[in-house]
Design goal:
The structure holds 2 protein chains of 2 kinds. By secondary structure, chain A is an alpha+beta fold. Chain A contains 14 helices and 17 strands. By secondary structure, chain B is α+β, with helices and mostly antiparallel strands. Classes of the chains: A alpha+beta, B alpha+beta. Chains A and B meet through helix 2, strand 12 and helix 10 of A and helix 2 and helix 9 of B.
Chain lengths: ~475, ~425
């Protein structure tokens, strides 16, 4: 571009500097606002995904049928080796294995007697990589055959103490139970593990188990447990009082968390006892649930395909109908799954997008308006400039340069302001860049037709037009 | 017809500027309206939070009474009245710890009557009628509410009345701690009951649609003390003098009851104050956006309108010279501006109403306040009207002043 034109454009801007400074400031604020909203939308969407991931939306459950318990660990190891798999778990789920636990704490004792207060709950046996907040799933069909075949994630959220997978001498207990009994982490618990799949139930007592942490259960069985009171005299149980409606079987998904080793040993003992009793096993005593978690929600479909392929390679067939031996079924958790996460993610940007759309509209209308004002005020000038030898291209360049200077000034102010802003509402430079690019495109596109409007007339028409 | 031509005729290229001014006003008004709607939505969310959270209230309760679970529910058993929570809160200890806070004392009891294989449960609450009415909502359909000097009388909700088979002025017995029955006379029936911080419903009782107790029999505290046989409270609310006093009050109460691990103290002020902080930030950001938009875009629209009016000075001067009264000419000028402003504002209102988001959330701004619903109300409409009228006034004033103060011949000889 000719240097004279640049000089002319700058001189022209200086003549009406108040108007241009105000326009630049307005543009800078608009760019900044667009950047803030865009940044917040991306934060919000990331936060929603993170929240869903935290709640286990990157997980899905694989139910396998007719696989011996020993082979489940090999399957878990193979699943962990799949790319994009964050974790694979096969917890001992009391609901599936007909295991309940009577956990109790001493509330009174003297040299003759001890009084225990406790609760009957379900049991879950976990290994060291189990994540209490994301890896506990229950298929309510197992509790109630009338219920549909669907798995529900039940987060075990930390309340007090250390909530981590326990060692064999440790346990995690729902806070509703500890509140009821009135104990805190550090207390010693007695636990009676009960296999209720046979009558009479097979029971093993564990004493001196340390309560290391408590958790809150978010789910339909929050606070649902069968309380009991037990009296022992000289170490012998003489009376245990349950509620009259207490059941021997599993009636709640509220679990106490134990080490997988403890539950595995107990199941081995149960198998031995059942063999000693003779007769067929009432139900298979092996795990049938794998909880697979992908690295991210986006990875879930690919991991699902890989897991299906792995299971087919092991000669398992997919069958979600009758659960015959040698089959498997992939189940997405109810409510909190990757599909819901994607749907929710698309919704959360609506509010910010509304403001972005209005701001961009304002930038477009404002830039076009500024150009309309210039064109209408200098209508005859367009003719005069062409008459003294300026080409239409040079005139477009001349006014376009003014517009470019305005846009550049606005972008520069916005960038400086975004760096200076240190509050929670600061925007990233990337979002400022994106907002600036959008502003340049929108501003240019809206101003160009206005600029071409007088150039579509002949110079004589422009000079002679008095209106 | 002639006035339509006088107002809008001969605009020429300036008409395009008027259209752009209308569009600028539309976009600016929609943006200001959107900002105000978010502020109004935030204010509403905060009001709801204030009403629901009642940040000045500190709740105290003892641990659950295990006998509530362990009492047999069938068989040949005598009627029982049990505390819902273990009675661990001594009124004197509570009074000294509560300081100048208002104590809403409660004895939350559970009446269990078993007859053969049938049982009838109702919750009985011993309350201070005046203090309780300040925190809970009792909408009476018949009769009257409790008075502090009432004796063996009760008010109860419709579900409990149906379950007990009693009506106004009828009586029913409640088993006291000494084994005798106390006969309570019904003096009022409650249609709608909202008991603040009601106990969780752990056993079958009337009105089971809630996980918290939503029905019950209400008696005065001294009547419940007669039933229970002691003055110890099962739970209580302490209303701080101001919401800001709630955390220190909660600390005082925890300190006073530190030797009793079965007493739990809960305050909601901390969470509420985070919501207030969120609202202040929301207010600040959107006020800034709204003000900057109204100021800059409004001034630009006024500038465009000024150009339009400046281009019509000779037009207005001609009308005055022809004998049309200056007031009528001014009205014609105003009509032009108002037509532009109205078109812009109506477009903005339609945009704000039809395209407004159903919910709005910014994670950095509303972490505790959560998603809010933008609300359109009169104040939003008034702000939009003010922007439009302000732009018209600023646009027409210089032209009109020039017309009136300068010689008419000068205006008539102007080009453009």
């Amino acid at each position: 571009m000719h240097r004279g034109l640049v000089w002319l454009a700058i001189v022209d801007l200086r003549r009406a500097w108040v108007r241009w400074v105000l326009a630049t400031a307005a543009l800078a604020l608009a760019i900044l606002a667009v950047a803030v909203f865009a940044h917040q939308i991306s934060l919000q969407q990331a936060a929603v995904l993170a929240q869903y991931e935290k709640g286990g939306a990157a997980s899905f459950v694989v139910e396998v049928f007719g696989i011996p318990d020993g082979d489940i660990d090999a399957l878990v190891t193979a699943a962990r080796a799949i790319g994009s798999v964050n974790s694979a778990e096969a917890p001992y789920n009391g609901v599936d294995l007909a295991l309940s636990g009577d956990i109790s704490f001493v509330v009174f004792q003297n040299d003759r007697q001890q009084e225990y207060l406790g609760a009957r709950t379900s049991v879950i046996g976990v290994d060291r990589s189990f994540d209490p907040a994301r890896d506990y799933y229950v298929n309510f069909h197992r509790l109630n055959p009338q219920a549909s075949q669907s798995v529900l994630g039940i987060p075990l959220l930390p309340i007090s103490g250390t909530v981590r997978p326990p060692t064999p001498q440790e346990t995690l207990v729902p806070s509703s139970v500890t509140d009821y009994v009135g104990v805190r982490p550090g207390a010693q618990a007695s636990i009676e593990l009960r296999h209720t799949g046979v009558t009479p139930p097979i029971v093993r007592r564990l004493d001196g188990v340390q309560l290391i942490g408590t958790f809150e259960v978010v789910g339909p069985d929050q606070g649902r447990f069968d309380p009991f009171w037990q009296l022992q005299i000289r170490g012998e149980e003489v009376l245990t009082v349950h509620r009259p409606d207490a059941k021997d079987g599993i009636s709640t998904t509220l679990p106490i968390v134990l080490s997988a080793d403890v539950v595995r040993d107990f199941l081995t003992a149960v198998r031995a006892e059942l063999q000693a009793r003779g007769g067929p096993l009432p139900q298979p005593l092996s795990r049938d649930q794998l909880v697979i978690r992908a690295n991210t929600i986006d990875d879930v479909p690919a991991v699902e395909r890989a897991v299906k392929s792995l299971l087919r390679d092991r000669r398992l067939t997919e069958d979600c109908g009758g659960s015959p031996p040698g089959s498997f079924c992939l189940r997405l958790p109810e409510r909190n799954n990757f599909q819901v996460a994607f749907q929710e993610q698309s919704k959360v940007g609506a509010g910010g997008s509304f403001f972005i759309a209005l701001l961009i509209a304002l930038i477009a209308v404002g830039t076009a308006g500024l150009q309309v004002q210039t064109v209408v005020t200098r209508w005859r000038e367009f003719g005069v400039l062409q008459a003294i030898g300026f080409s239409p291209g040079q005139i477009v360049g001349y006014y376009g340069l003014q517009l470019c200077l305005l846009l550049a000034g606005g972008i520069a102010f916005a960038a400086i302001a975004s760096i200076a802003l240190t509050s929670a509402l600061s925007s990233s430079l990337a979002s400022v860049g994106m907002a600036a690019a959008v502003s340049v495109i929108v501003g240019g596109l809206s101003a160009l037709p206005v600029l071409l409007w007088p150039l579509s007339r002949s110079p004589a028409d422009l000079i002679g037009d008095q209106a | 017809m002639i006035w339509t031509q006088i107002i809008f005729g001969g605009l020429g290229r300036r008409g395009f500027e008027a259209v752009v001014a209308g569009l600028v006003l539309a976009a600016a008004s929609a943006l200001v309206a959107g900002s105000l709607m978010v502020i109004e939505g935030g204010r509403y969310a905060l009001t709801q939070a204030e009403r629901n959270d009642r940040p000045e209230i500190v709740q105290m309760r003892s641990r659950f009474n295990r006998a509530l679970f362990e009492t047999p529910r069938s068989g040949n058993l005598p009627p029982l009245t049990l505390p819902v929570y273990e009675p661990l809160i001594e009124p004197d200890q509570l009074s000294s710890a509560a300081g100048d806070g208002t104590i809403v004392a409660r004895q939350s009891l559970f009446r269990n009557v078993v007859s053969g294989d049938r049982f009838l449960n109702v919750y009985i609450f011993g309350i201070d009628p005046i203090a309780e009415a300040q925190v809970s909502n009792f909408s009476l359909t018949r009769g009257r509410f409790l008075r502090p000097d009432d004796g063996a009388v009760a008010v109860l909700d419709e579900a409990s009345a149906r379950a007990l088979g009693v009506d106004l002025d009828e009586t029913f017995p409640v088993r006291k701690a000494d084994g005798e029955d106390l006969v309570l006379t019904v003096v009022g029936i409650i249609g709608k009951l909202e008991l603040r911080d009601a106990p969780p419903r752990t056993v079958e009782a009337p009105a089971q649609d809630s996980s918290f107790v939503s029905s019950g029999v209400f008696v005065t505290l001294h009547t419940s003390e007669a039933i229970f046989g002691r003055t110890t409270l099962t739970d209580a609310l302490v209303v701080a003098r101001t919401p800001t006093n709630a955390p220190s009050l909660a600390n005082d109460l925890r300190e006073a009851f530190r030797l009793e691990p079965g007493v739990f103290v809960t305050e909601r002020y901390s969470q509420f104050s985070r919501k207030v902080h969120d609202f202040v930030l929301t207010l600040g950001l959107f006020t800034l956006i709204g003000t900057a938009t109204a100021l800059l875009a409004g001034l630009f629209a006024a500038n465009l309108l000024h150009d339009v009016y400046a281009g019509r000075r000779r037009h207005y001067a001609t009308l005055i010279a022809l004998g049309v009264s200056p007031a009528r000419v001014a009205l014609a000028g105003l009509s032009l501006g108002l037509a532009v402003a109205c078109a812009g504002t109506i477009t903005a209102v339609l945009m704000a109403i039809f395209f407004r988001p159903t919910e709005f959330a910014l994670p950095s701004l509303m972490a505790d306040l959560g998603a809010i619903e933008p609300r359109f109300d009169l104040s939003v409409a008034a702000a939009m009207a003010a922007i439009a009228l302000g732009a018209v006034a600023l646009g027409i004033t210089p032209t009109w002043r020039r017309l009136l103060r300068h010689p008419m011949a000068k205006a008539l000889s102007e080009n453009g």
